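ugh ok fine here u go
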Amino acid sequence: PFHPSTLPPLNPSTPQPFHLSTHNMITLLLIFMAFIALGGGIYLFAIEHECNALINAKITNQEVMRIAREYNGRLSVGVLAQKTKLDFTEAERKLYIMLSEGIFHHEYDDNYQPVFVLNPSLPTRTASDSLPAPTRHEHLGVPASVVSDGEVIQIAVQNQGRITASMLCMKTKIQFEEAKGTLELLQRKGVFEAEVNENGTIIYTLPDWELLKGA
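structure:
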């Protein structure tokens, strides 16, 4: 009859099959999940940062603050979307960005809808409030144009309602980036419509040129 004692002894030099204990398997699984979570977190942070940058390029803090002051320092997402070119999601994100920067604080109205209220410690009036445009084109990092909106429109009217950044730069002697930022801002305000020609040049067109040329 077979008995375990009759088996030959194991040779220590013979490779033994690798056995992974349950504890080690759990540890490796947790490490793997941690790497996935870290990579996902970095990716989400990059996406969030990019979204915020795009929103800030569309509208500056000064513009939002100016709109809020028209409503006694209180602003809702719907009102901001209505007064600007932002959609509802973009308007909400912009207000929460400014909330995180301490420009607004958060309240709820009688219908339990969020209302963003300007921080009372902020100055009631800034230097940009007396200008037709924000003090800086924040997305370009250049000072606001010294050229008024009316001057830009007049140049466009003289050119059959069309203008480019190069033309504005040449006519007013301002820097090209400044001219480009001025036209982008006026487009966001609805003054101009933008189109790209076959050479890739952005042409800004006055939709009401026929009315303005006789003014």
